[in-house]
Amino acid sequence: MKSVKNYIQENKQRFIDELVELLKIPSISADSSYKNYVLKTAEAVKLNLEKAGCEHVEICKTKGYPIVYGEKILNKNLPTILVYGHYDVQPPDPLDLWNSPPFEPVIKNTETHPEGAIFARGASDDKGQVFMHIKAMEFMTSTNQLPCNVKFMIEGEEEVGSKNLEAFVKENQERLTNDVILISDTGMISKDTPSITTGIRGLSYVEVEVTGPNRDLHSGLYGGAVANPINILSKMIASLHDENNQITIPGFYDKVEELSKEERTEMAKAPFSLEAYQKALDIETVYGETGYSTNERNAIRPTLDVNGIWGGYIGEGAKTVIPSKAYAKISMRLVPNQDWEEITKLFKSHFESIAPKGVKVEVKPHHGGNGYVTPLNSIGYQAASKAYLETFGKLPIPQRSGGSIPIVALFEKELKSKTILMGFGLDSDAIHSPNEHFGIWNYLMGIETIPYFYKYFTELSK
Amino acid sequence: MKSVKNYIQENKQRFIDELVELLKIPSISADSSYKNYVLKTAEAVKLNLEKAGCEHVEICKTKGYPIVYGEKILNKNLPTILVYGHYDVQPPDPLDLWNSPPFEPVIKNTETHPEGAIFARGASDDKGQVFMHIKAMEFMTSTNQLPCNVKFMIEGEEEVGSKNLEAFVKENQERLTNDVILISDTGMISKDTPSITTGIRGLSYVEVEVTGPNRDLHSGLYGGAVANPINILSKMIASLHDENNQITIPGFYDKVEELSKEERTEMAKAPFSLEAYQKALDIETVYGETGYSTNERNAIRPTLDVNGIWGGYIGEGAKTVIPSKAYAKISMRLVPNQDWEEITKLFKSHFESIAPKGVKVEVKPHHGGNGYVTPLNSIGYQAASKAYLETFGKLPIPQRSGGSIPIVALFEKELKSKTILMGFGLDSDAIHSPNEHFGIWNYLMGIETIPYFYKYFTELSK
């Protein structure tokens, strides 16, 4: 491809500065007090799409945060790529664990990123990766090398379950028609081991509330005589796993896809050092379902994790209280074939059934989505493979990821097209954690690789 | 006793107004941001003691909040009563459950208190009950009916474990010599069933911290592969009780005093309606150790309750995170003969021993104290009995309480004297809960009854 490397070299600093500007806006979709910042981010995305050569760029209202849409249609007979991403970010807390403020981006060199990395919430997930596509688009339009039609759909509610995306997609099926969907919201194995995510897990996220007495009680006067919601909630949560760390919800595993011995052997070839993994997390040992490796546990097996728990007195000092209520946020990662709505129902009825008399239990389904697998023989996967070979000098490894991008399954259902997950982040990016960052090398490699995907996808589609 | 009823009638409104003033000061000892209010409260107590006729009133410095001391020594040959109480209060949260601000006292009539009750944090525990003693003192001095020597010791750290009281008592043994200690920091069975608390439970309060990975992790990428501190903490907490709701800590029950069949039959005579109890708490059923009644579970049996738990994302919306840390505040109520320091050690070593590999566990002992039993044949108990008979027209029922006043055991050890727990509060006072209140009838009955204790204790001591 003509001069993509040079173009990036010439514009490198501007590419970084423009991303830094976007990262300064705290677009936390989970916290309504940040509403204006989220909306401001949508405006910024619109401007950047227009600068990159998109047409008919529009901030599309939804019941929640808007979806930014833009397109460049060259010719109805050419294939069309739909790029999806999100401009909202995870909440940054716990703030005290950040080495620099989450919305004041700084560039620092690290062992993994001697060329520097941008530290900020959203740097990798997903503002940085969305920006790779916008800058690749800019390159292709400004050098007249855009080989096909492009549509951008950048939403603002991915971190809270893409609540309003389904309605939007259904109402805009015409406008969104495409031949392949391209998403960069995942990672690759390492800087010298490119990989394409070919499988993602589904998700069911619920919030539970356990109510005991109708008011907080003195633990001396009532302790031992009434059900303590925290003790009960702990018991209930503990009972959700058996001694092999399998989930005890009846029917939970019924539809779980069991991989063949061959597939598992293939997976096991991905470079992985358990020692390095444990060292990086400062844990003595890993922990999970008996009979599966770490990479299997977080990719092809469903899981249940408590993401938050609270109840009683959590302030400074001591309070001898039996609280009236205790709460937990619980999420389950699902594998292909598990239906998130069915699993949510199974969880709800099981969790309610194990509540002892003396407490009331409420389960509030939060959001979710199904898992997905990309066929390796699809044109999209082949085009992506060739693109990586071009820029990395080696073929990417197909990889199952433990994360969830529920909308991928939604797209297949509503738009009847396959999704290619070209992620340029690294596990060490600390997405969803303090000190999230995105390597400048990764950022630029993404910008360089994407245009080749456009090229090969157009060629292979002929 | 000359004119005590009249004196109360004449000064009733002032007695209420003066208490209301004290209740307005938020003396929350657990939260250091309230420090100045706690100190201001000590000043107020000093002034009130002086007004009541105490001499040598002094705000005695400690490493923490000061202890207010005052005395009235008539004659070295007369018996001496030491009155203990505390001017600090529990934190008021959850604030949204209060019907009126916790530090803006209001008087409302209730079913139990047609004569009105004062609603405010500390109304019953313990400012209101301390004030009964101050007003009784005022009556006796102003009418020249004080029959013996009196010493007041009012501390400001009871709700956080009386951290510095032991040192103070040891350093002031001379000044604190007494023949009996009188405390009103407990309740009675009901307005028409006076009772004296003859047994209290000990306490061991600890805080635990479970650490998994060295940073918060994305629950999709790591879920199922690393130990989740919340899931683990829940499992560990759940394992602290067996299927009979007995505590599983090895050695925990070794020194527990087992009551005789006769004693349990005696206890069972106290009026109690399980139906009313459950209705008042809006629970379908009580919950506790198999083989014991509700009154036994919260009085003569040791317990373990989680008073607070927190970890992960507890804000609005959803965050798919595996937190690095999870925490809980856990307290154990102990019965006579259990040593709180020994129990704390047993908890610590057991809790650390059940932590699975893959997490680190830290147990921080918070505070505690031992249980205590008052001998019914003591002069103090006899004097109290006669005092109640005088004002209530019936003998009080000796009752074991589930609460803890660790300093009672401390007093016996350091000052070699017995404590009489003359409490005028009711279970329905909601101490440690939102909408704490103290009945005006109870308040005035306390003021009326206390001088009779002084009278009979002096007579019986001759």
Overall description:
The structure is a homodimer of 462-residue chains. The radius of gyration of chain A is 23 Å and the shape is globular. Chain A starts with a helix and ends with a helix. The mean pLDDT of chain A is 95. Chain A is of the alpha+beta class. A six-stranded mixed sheet of chain A has the order 1-2-6-3-7-17, with helices on both faces. The first copy, chain A, has a four-stranded antiparallel sheet with strand order 11-13-9-14. Chain A has a three-stranded antiparallel sheet with strand order 4-5-18. Chain A has two domains: 4-200 and 371-460, Zn peptidases (Aminopeptidase), CATH 3.40.630; 203-256 and 302-369, Alpha-Beta Plaits (2-Layer Sandwich). Chain A has helices at 4-23, 35-51, 127-142, 165-171, 173-176, 219-222, 229-238, 261-267, 274-281, 294-297, 340-353, 379-392, 407-415, 440-461, and strands at 55-60, 67-72, 80-86, 106-108, 117-119, 149-155, 180-183, 195-200, 202-211, 217-218, 303-312, 321-322, 325-334, 360-369, 372-373, 397-400, 419-421, 437-439. The interface between A and B is large, with 101 and 101 residues. β11 (303-312) of chain A pairs antiparallel with β11 of chain B.
Quick take:
The structure is a homodimer of 462-residue chains. Chain A contains 14 helices and 18 strands.
